[in-house]
Design brief:
Blueprint (H helix, E strand, L loop, with lengths): L1 E5 L5 H11 L10 H16 L8 E8 L5 E8 L10 E11 L4 E11 L6 E8 L8 H15 L7 E5 L11 H11 L3 H10 L3 H6 L5 E2 L5 H6 L8 H9 L3 E6 L6 E6 L4 H4 L1 E8 L7 E6 L7 E5 L1 E3 L2 E4 L1 H7 L6 E5 L1
Parallel strand pairs: 6-7, 11-15
Antiparallel strand pairs: 1-2, 2-3, 3-6, 4-5, 4-9, 5-8, 7-10, 9-10, 11-16, 12-13, 12-16, 14-15
Pfam family, one: AstA
InterPro entries: Acyl_CoA_acyltransferase, Arg_succinylTrfase_AstA/AruG
Keywords: Acyltransferase, Arginine metabolism, Transferase
Length: 334
């Protein structure tokens, strides 16, 4: 059985392995042990409540209980832009009109903004390629919303997700090459690494302060604005199924789109109910997403659930995976 559980420092080896597999442009999963260990330590403190709620960053691991192997991960950051700005480009239309010649021009432009400050971010969704079927991706992605739903006040009223931007088959990033590199003048991989491993001051120092007219940038970079990495299409579809929509914001490095949704409008949160659990044979009941009802020790699985007398009856394997006792509250996505 697959179980989603909190990550901690002991997961460093597995997280490093997934970071290598994830490839270029996966900013939240850098191939740097020090950075990843800091994140895992922060995750442990977040789940135990050892830090302020707005500073929390929860990392969840997808573990195969039979083999003990970590098959994927995802994360929930309680609030972005708290300790430093969270910059994006907003794609805007700038209108210009000349009364002298009676002509109006509408220009698309990229404008540097810091609109997401305080928003909750769901991200870092990555699965081993061989696990991208059979419901594992859905379990992992939706576990983030189950976590948010357990204690909504810990999280912002707006939830966002940044999707990895488009890379050409030759491994280059058209948006970086045509736009961002002109300001940062670093190799993409170095700049990408610095986002997570430094305080981000270089972004504050070097990011463009004036609108960038889209008509003036190379066509390849233009076409990449808001375009999703080939490996991110499934993630986008899952976001849209949960109610996320494009916000008009794109990443300042790779041009990938930012999606957002009101927290309480997320489909999984709306369709989840809390019930006491009961151990038993659910028979041919449908397989649903089930989680614990607390942030501390949060766990989630897919299991058959039969609703009976106001209880959620689940099998022994699910009871063991969730580490709950009969009668304890669980949350079930209907």
């Amino acid at each position: 059985m697959l179980v989603v559980r909190p990550a901690g420092p002991s997961d460093l080896g597995s997280l490093m392995e997934l970071a290598v597999l994830s490839g270029r442009g996966f900013t939240s999963l850098p191939e740097d042990e020090t950075t990843l260990l800091d994140r895992l330590t922060l995750s442990e403190a977040s789940f135990t409540g050892a830090i302020a709620p707005r500073e929390a960053w929860y990392t969840l691991m997808l573990e195969d209980m039979e083999t003990g192997r970590i098959e994927g991960l995802c994360g929930v950051r309680a609030a972005v832009g708290v300790s430093r700005p969270h910059f994006s480009f907003r794609v805007m239309t700038l209108a210009q009109f000349s009364s002298a010649i009676g002509t109006r021009f509408d220009h698309q432009a990229l404008v540097l903004v810091n609109e997401c400050a305080g928003w909750t971010e769901v991200g870092s969704l990555y699965l081993r390629p061989e696990r991208r079927s059979g419901g594992a991706g859905s379990l992992l992605a939706r576990s983030r919303y189950m976590l948010i739903g357990v204690d909504r006040p810990r999280f912002s009223e707006t939830v966002m997700a940044e999707l990895r931007g488009y890379f050409s088959p030759d491994g280059t990033c058209p948006f970086w090459e045509g736009v961002a590199s002109k300001f940062f003048r670093l190799p993409f991989d170095e700049a990408d690494h610095m986002v997570m491993s430094t305080d981000g001051q270089f972004i504050l120092d070097l990011a463009p302060r004036h609108p960038i007219y889209v008509e003036l940038i190379p066509d390849a970079a233009h076409q990449a604005i808001g375009k999703v990495h080939v490996e991110g299409e499934a993630a986008r579809a899952m976001l849209e199924n949960e109610g996320f929509r494009g916000s008009g914001l794109v990443d300042i490095f790779d041009g990938g789109p930012t999606y957002s949704v009101p927290r309480d409008s997320i489909t999984t949160i709306q369709r989840t109910v809390a019930l006491p659990c009961a151990a038993g044979d659910p028979g041919d009941a449908p397989e649903l997403l089930v989680s614990t009802a607390s942030v501390d020790g949060f766990r989630a699985v897919r299991a058959k659930v039969r609703f009976e007398d106001g209880r959620a009856m689940i099998g022994a394997a699910a009871i063991e995976a969730l580490r709950v006792a009969p009668g304890e509250m669980v949350r079930v996505r209907q």
